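Design job #97: recover the sequence.
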Protein backbone atom coordinates (compact mmCIF):
# COMPACT_ATOMS: atom_id res chain seq x y z
CA UNK A 1 0.00 0.00 0.00
CA UNK A 2 1.18 3.49 -0.88
CA UNK A 3 -0.07 6.51 1.07
CA UNK A 4 0.50 10.15 0.16
CA UNK A 5 -0.46 12.82 2.71
CA UNK A 6 -1.08 16.23 1.13
CA UNK A 7 -0.98 19.12 3.57
CA UNK A 8 0.27 22.67 3.83
CA UNK A 9 -0.86 26.25 3.40
CA UNK A 10 -4.41 27.10 2.35
CA UNK A 11 -4.30 28.40 -1.21
CA UNK A 12 -1.04 26.63 -2.04
CA UNK A 13 -2.71 24.08 -4.34
CA UNK A 14 -3.66 21.16 -2.08
CA UNK A 15 -7.07 20.68 -3.71
CA UNK A 16 -5.51 20.77 -7.18
CA UNK A 17 -2.91 18.23 -6.07
CA UNK A 18 -5.66 15.92 -4.81
CA UNK A 19 -7.48 16.19 -8.15
CA UNK A 20 -4.26 15.32 -9.99
CA UNK A 21 -3.66 12.32 -7.71
CA UNK A 22 -7.22 11.14 -8.34
CA UNK A 23 -6.46 11.22 -12.07
CA UNK A 24 -3.42 9.04 -11.30
CA UNK A 25 -5.68 6.35 -9.76
CA UNK A 26 -5.18 7.32 -6.13
CA UNK A 27 -8.15 6.84 -3.81
CA UNK A 28 -8.46 10.37 -2.40
CA UNK A 29 -9.92 11.45 0.95
CA UNK A 30 -9.79 15.15 1.74
CA UNK A 31 -9.96 16.85 5.15
CA UNK A 32 -9.47 13.60 7.06
CA UNK A 33 -9.35 14.04 10.86
CA UNK A 34 -5.92 12.64 11.85
CA UNK A 35 -7.40 10.43 14.57
CA UNK A 36 -9.31 8.47 11.90
CA UNK A 37 -6.14 7.52 10.03
CA UNK A 38 -5.39 4.21 11.85
CA UNK A 39 -8.87 2.85 11.15
CA UNK A 40 -8.67 3.90 7.52
CA UNK A 41 -5.30 2.21 7.03
CA UNK A 42 -6.60 -0.96 8.68
CA UNK A 43 -9.59 -1.03 6.35
CA UNK A 44 -7.38 -0.61 3.28
CA UNK A 45 -4.98 -3.29 4.55
CA UNK A 46 -7.85 -5.78 4.81
CA UNK A 47 -8.97 -4.90 1.29
CA UNK A 48 -5.43 -5.41 0.03
CA UNK A 49 -5.38 -8.91 1.54
CA UNK A 50 -8.59 -9.72 -0.32
CA UNK A 51 -7.00 -8.49 -3.55
CA UNK A 52 -4.00 -10.76 -2.91
CA UNK A 53 -6.36 -13.72 -2.58
CA UNK A 54 -7.82 -12.80 -5.97
CA UNK A 55 -4.28 -12.71 -7.42
CA UNK A 56 -4.51 -8.99 -8.14
CA UNK A 57 -1.13 -7.33 -8.60
CA UNK A 58 -2.55 -3.83 -8.36
CA UNK A 59 -0.96 -1.82 -5.56
CA UNK A 60 -3.47 0.22 -3.56
CA UNK A 61 -2.73 3.93 -3.67
CA UNK A 62 -4.28 6.25 -1.11
CA UNK A 63 -4.04 10.05 -0.94
CA UNK A 64 -5.12 11.89 2.20
CA UNK A 65 -5.64 15.64 2.47
CA UNK A 66 -5.14 17.30 5.85
CA UNK A 67 -5.44 21.07 6.29
CA UNK A 68 -5.48 23.68 9.03
CA UNK A 69 -9.16 23.03 9.81
CA UNK A 70 -8.35 19.49 10.93
CA UNK A 71 -5.48 20.76 13.06
CA UNK A 72 -7.59 23.45 14.72
CA UNK A 73 -10.36 21.01 15.55
CA UNK A 74 -8.38 17.88 16.40
CA UNK A 75 -5.03 19.25 17.55
CA UNK A 76 -1.65 19.71 15.94
CA UNK A 77 0.20 16.87 14.24
CA UNK A 78 3.50 15.93 15.85
CA UNK A 79 5.96 13.06 15.59
CA UNK A 80 3.31 10.68 17.00
CA UNK A 81 1.51 11.04 13.68
CA UNK A 82 4.27 9.09 11.96
CA UNK A 83 3.74 6.17 14.32
CA UNK A 84 0.26 5.66 12.88
CA UNK A 85 1.76 4.21 9.70
CA UNK A 86 2.61 0.48 9.89
CA UNK A 87 6.06 -0.49 8.65
CA UNK A 88 4.65 -2.17 5.55
CA UNK A 89 2.93 1.04 4.42
CA UNK A 90 4.99 3.17 2.07
CA UNK A 91 4.04 6.73 3.03
CA UNK A 92 5.14 10.25 2.20
CA UNK A 93 4.04 13.60 3.60
CA UNK A 94 4.00 16.38 1.01
CA UNK A 95 3.78 19.93 2.36
CA UNK A 96 2.63 22.62 -0.06
CA UNK A 97 3.32 26.30 0.42
CA UNK A 98 3.62 29.60 -1.43
CA UNK A 99 4.71 33.13 -0.63
CA UNK A 100 2.38 35.40 1.36
CA UNK A 101 1.91 37.70 -1.64
CA UNK A 102 0.97 34.78 -3.88
CA UNK A 103 -1.54 33.41 -1.36
CA UNK A 104 -3.13 36.84 -0.95
CA UNK A 105 -3.42 37.17 -4.73
CA UNK A 106 -4.98 33.71 -5.10
CA UNK A 107 -7.55 34.38 -2.39
CA UNK A 108 -8.51 37.68 -3.98
CA UNK A 109 -8.96 35.98 -7.34
CA UNK A 110 -10.99 33.08 -5.94
CA UNK A 111 -13.05 35.30 -3.57
CA UNK A 112 -13.02 32.53 -0.99
CA UNK A 113 -12.52 32.92 2.74
CA UNK A 114 -9.34 31.77 4.44
CA UNK A 115 -10.07 29.14 7.14
CA UNK A 116 -8.57 31.40 9.83
CA UNK A 117 -9.97 34.68 8.52
CA UNK A 118 -12.97 34.86 10.88
CA UNK A 119 -10.95 36.71 13.54
CA UNK A 120 -8.11 37.97 11.35
CA UNK A 121 -7.62 39.94 8.16
CA UNK A 122 -6.30 37.89 5.24
CA UNK A 123 -2.58 38.56 5.64
CA UNK A 124 -2.80 37.96 9.40
CA UNK A 125 -4.66 34.68 8.80
CA UNK A 126 -1.97 33.51 6.36
CA UNK A 127 0.81 34.32 8.80
CA UNK A 128 -1.02 32.63 11.67
CA UNK A 129 -1.53 29.50 9.58
CA UNK A 130 2.13 29.44 8.58
CA UNK A 131 3.13 29.61 12.24
CA UNK A 132 0.69 26.86 13.24
CA UNK A 133 1.99 24.55 10.51
CA UNK A 134 5.67 24.88 11.39
CA UNK A 135 5.87 21.54 13.21
CA UNK A 136 4.01 19.68 10.47
CA UNK A 137 6.26 21.26 7.86
CA UNK A 138 9.28 19.93 9.71
CA UNK A 139 7.87 16.38 9.61
CA UNK A 140 7.25 16.45 5.87
CA UNK A 141 9.21 14.35 3.39
CA UNK A 142 8.87 16.92 0.62
CA UNK A 143 8.08 20.64 0.52
CA UNK A 144 6.62 22.01 -2.72
CA UNK A 145 6.68 25.77 -3.24
CA UNK A 146 3.95 26.59 -5.77
CA UNK A 147 4.63 30.34 -5.91
CA UNK A 148 5.78 30.18 -9.54
CA UNK A 149 3.83 27.05 -10.56
CA UNK A 150 0.85 26.82 -12.88
CA UNK A 151 -1.72 24.06 -12.42
CA UNK A 152 -0.23 22.16 -15.36
CA UNK A 153 3.29 22.48 -13.96
CA UNK A 154 2.07 21.14 -10.62
CA UNK A 155 0.46 18.18 -12.35
CA UNK A 156 3.62 17.38 -14.31
CA UNK A 157 5.73 17.73 -11.16
CA UNK A 158 3.55 15.32 -9.18
CA UNK A 159 3.43 12.82 -12.02
CA UNK A 160 7.21 12.79 -12.41
CA UNK A 161 7.62 12.60 -8.64
CA UNK A 162 5.24 9.71 -8.05
CA UNK A 163 5.94 7.62 -11.14
CA UNK A 164 9.67 8.20 -11.12
CA UNK A 165 10.00 7.42 -14.82
CA UNK A 166 9.66 10.84 -16.37
CA UNK A 167 7.22 9.40 -18.89
CA UNK A 168 4.32 11.54 -20.02
CA UNK A 169 0.99 10.32 -18.73
CA UNK A 170 -1.25 9.22 -21.59
CA UNK A 171 -4.93 10.02 -21.69
CA UNK A 172 -7.67 7.48 -21.32
CA UNK A 173 -9.81 7.56 -24.46
CA UNK A 174 -13.42 6.42 -24.67
CA UNK A 175 -14.69 5.60 -28.15
CA UNK A 176 -18.47 5.41 -28.47
CA UNK A 177 -20.42 4.51 -31.58
CA UNK A 178 -23.93 5.92 -31.89
CA UNK A 179 -26.76 6.61 -34.28
CA UNK A 180 -27.47 10.23 -35.16
CA UNK A 181 -31.19 9.47 -35.24
CA UNK A 182 -30.98 8.76 -31.48
CA UNK A 183 -28.94 11.85 -30.64
CA UNK A 184 -25.28 12.67 -30.12
CA UNK A 185 -23.89 11.49 -26.73
CA UNK A 186 -23.68 14.45 -24.37
CA UNK A 187 -20.14 13.77 -23.13
CA UNK A 188 -18.39 13.70 -26.53
CA UNK A 189 -15.28 15.86 -26.90
CA UNK A 190 -14.92 14.97 -30.59
CA UNK A 191 -17.47 13.59 -33.05
CA UNK A 192 -16.70 11.76 -36.30
CA UNK A 193 -19.62 11.62 -38.73
CA UNK A 194 -19.15 8.52 -40.91
CA UNK A 195 -22.45 8.76 -42.78
CA UNK A 196 -20.46 9.57 -45.94
CA UNK A 197 -19.32 5.93 -46.03
CA UNK A 198 -21.25 3.32 -48.06
CA UNK A 199 -24.09 1.90 -45.97
CA UNK A 200 -24.27 -1.91 -45.44
CA UNK A 201 -27.98 -1.56 -44.68
CA UNK A 202 -28.70 -1.59 -48.39
CA UNK A 203 -26.99 -4.97 -48.79
CA UNK A 204 -29.76 -7.39 -47.88
CA UNK A 205 -27.51 -10.11 -46.49
CA UNK A 206 -25.75 -7.55 -44.22
CA UNK A 207 -28.80 -5.69 -42.96
CA UNK A 208 -29.40 -7.83 -39.88
CA UNK A 209 -25.69 -8.02 -38.99
CA UNK A 210 -23.71 -5.42 -37.05
CA UNK A 211 -20.39 -3.68 -37.49
CA UNK A 212 -18.81 -6.29 -35.24
CA UNK A 213 -19.49 -9.04 -37.76
CA UNK A 214 -16.76 -9.89 -40.26
CA UNK A 215 -18.87 -9.50 -43.44
CA UNK A 216 -19.89 -5.95 -42.45
CA UNK A 217 -16.31 -5.06 -41.53
CA UNK A 218 -15.01 -6.35 -44.85
CA UNK A 219 -17.68 -4.44 -46.74
CA UNK A 220 -17.06 -1.11 -44.98
CA UNK A 221 -13.27 -1.27 -44.93
CA UNK A 222 -12.99 -2.32 -48.57
CA UNK A 223 -13.77 1.17 -49.90
CA UNK A 224 -10.79 3.43 -50.73
CA UNK A 225 -12.42 6.48 -49.13
CA UNK A 226 -12.70 4.55 -45.85
CA UNK A 227 -9.06 3.53 -45.96
CA UNK A 228 -8.11 7.14 -46.68
CA UNK A 229 -10.24 8.27 -43.73
CA UNK A 230 -8.40 5.88 -41.41
CA UNK A 231 -5.05 7.26 -42.56
CA UNK A 232 -6.31 10.79 -41.96
CA UNK A 233 -7.60 9.81 -38.50
CA UNK A 234 -4.20 8.47 -37.46
CA UNK A 235 -2.50 11.69 -38.58
CA UNK A 236 -5.13 13.72 -36.73
CA UNK A 237 -4.60 11.71 -33.54
CA UNK A 238 -0.83 12.02 -33.78
CA UNK A 239 -1.17 15.78 -34.11
CA UNK A 240 -4.00 16.62 -31.71
CA UNK A 241 -3.86 14.17 -28.79
CA UNK A 242 -0.46 15.32 -27.47
CA UNK A 243 -1.79 18.89 -27.55
CA UNK A 244 -4.86 17.88 -25.55
CA UNK A 245 -2.53 16.28 -23.01
CA UNK A 246 -0.39 19.39 -22.89
CA UNK A 247 -3.50 21.31 -21.85
CA UNK A 248 -4.00 18.89 -18.96
CA UNK A 249 -6.74 16.67 -20.38
CA UNK A 250 -6.67 13.18 -18.86
CA UNK A 251 -9.69 11.62 -20.59
CA UNK A 252 -11.25 12.17 -23.97
CA UNK A 253 -14.48 10.84 -25.43
CA UNK A 254 -14.65 10.29 -29.18
CA UNK A 255 -18.09 9.78 -30.65
CA UNK A 256 -18.42 7.97 -33.98
CA UNK A 257 -21.83 8.31 -35.57
CA UNK A 258 -23.73 6.84 -38.49
CA UNK A 259 -27.47 6.86 -39.12
CA UNK A 260 -28.60 4.07 -36.80
CA UNK A 261 -25.44 3.26 -34.86
CA UNK A 262 -25.39 -0.38 -35.90
CA UNK A 263 -23.11 -0.82 -38.92
CA UNK A 264 -20.60 1.80 -40.07
CA UNK A 265 -20.04 3.57 -36.76
CA UNK A 266 -19.44 0.27 -34.98
CA UNK A 267 -16.85 -0.94 -37.47
CA UNK A 268 -15.04 2.41 -37.57
CA UNK A 269 -15.08 2.72 -33.76
CA UNK A 270 -13.32 -0.62 -33.46
CA UNK A 271 -10.78 0.37 -36.11
CA UNK A 272 -10.09 3.75 -34.46
CA UNK A 273 -9.71 2.06 -31.08
CA UNK A 274 -7.12 -0.27 -32.59
CA UNK A 275 -5.19 2.72 -33.96
CA UNK A 276 -5.26 4.42 -30.56
CA UNK A 277 -4.07 1.28 -28.77
CA UNK A 278 -1.18 1.05 -31.23
CA UNK A 279 -0.30 4.56 -30.05
CA UNK A 280 -0.20 3.21 -26.45
CA UNK A 281 -3.34 4.96 -25.22
CA UNK A 282 -5.68 3.21 -22.81
CA UNK A 283 -8.90 2.79 -24.79
CA UNK A 284 -12.43 1.72 -23.92
CA UNK A 285 -15.11 1.11 -26.54
CA UNK A 286 -18.89 1.23 -26.18
CA UNK A 287 -21.51 0.70 -28.88
CA UNK A 288 -24.51 2.60 -27.58
CA UNK A 289 -27.10 1.80 -30.24
CA UNK A 290 -25.91 -1.52 -31.63
CA UNK A 291 -28.85 -3.47 -30.17
CA UNK A 292 -31.53 -1.20 -31.57
CA UNK A 293 -33.58 -2.46 -34.51
CA UNK A 294 -31.66 -2.02 -37.78
CA UNK A 295 -33.08 0.86 -39.78
CA UNK A 296 -32.12 2.38 -43.06
CA UNK A 297 -31.12 5.84 -44.13
CA UNK A 298 -28.24 7.76 -45.51
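Job complete. Output follows.
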Amino acid sequence: MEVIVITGMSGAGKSSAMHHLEDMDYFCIDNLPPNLLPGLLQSFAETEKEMDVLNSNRNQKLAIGIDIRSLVRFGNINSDFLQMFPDEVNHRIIFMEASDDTLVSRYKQSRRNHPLAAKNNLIAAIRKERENLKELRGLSDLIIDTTEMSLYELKDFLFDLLTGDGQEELMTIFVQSFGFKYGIPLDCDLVADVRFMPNPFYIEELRESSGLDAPVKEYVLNFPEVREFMQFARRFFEFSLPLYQKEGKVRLTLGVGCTGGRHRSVTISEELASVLRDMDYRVFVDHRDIKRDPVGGL
